[in-house]
Amino acid sequence: MTTRSDCHLDTADEFLGKARAYLEEGDLLQASEKGWGAAARTVKAVAEHRGWRNSTHGHLFGVVDRLVDETGEVELRDFFGAANELHQNFYEGHMSVAWVAQNLDRVEALVVRLRGLLG
């Protein structure tokens, strides 16, 4: 049976792949938004798995805070912050290729760490 968490993870994987492809094509806006989407969907997957609220941006930040409290991995905030910067870049277009690439690396690290929390 496929759960909502599984659906979020599948979408996160798809978005991360598309983010990398858009980066290669030089479409920094779409790379940025897909990076944000991958991070948000992975946070949602963990929240769904634990029965936590996750329907707003504020909830997602709260989920990350709870995970930091639980694991002691404060860098999760930095990784999610990088994802949020990508989300902002989608609207403002202020980041260079290097910035987008670096933040996508951080999103990928977030995805890996959060997947590890799901077992």
Instruction: Output the helix-strand order.
Output: HHHHH
Helix fraction bin: over 70%
Tally the beta strands. Answer: 0
Count of helices? 5
Poorly predicted runs are none
> Termini separation (Å)?
17 Å
Please state the structural category: mainly alpha
State mean pLDDT (0 to 100 scale). Answer: 97
How much of the polypeptide forms β-strand, as a percent range?
under 5%
* Coarse morphology: globular
Write a concise keyword list for the protein shown above.
119 residues, mainly alpha, 83% helix
Structural description of this entry:
This protein has 119 residues and is mostly helical. 83% of the residues lie in helices and 0% in strands. The longest helix has 23 residues, at 28-50.
Provide a brief overview of the structure:
83% of the residues lie in helices and 0% in strands. By secondary structure, it is an all-alpha fold.
Tell me the layout of helices and strands.
Blueprint lengths: L3 H22 L2 H23 L6 H15 L3 H18 L4 H21 L2
Helix pairs in contact: 1-2, 1-5, 2-4, 2-5, 3-4, 4-5
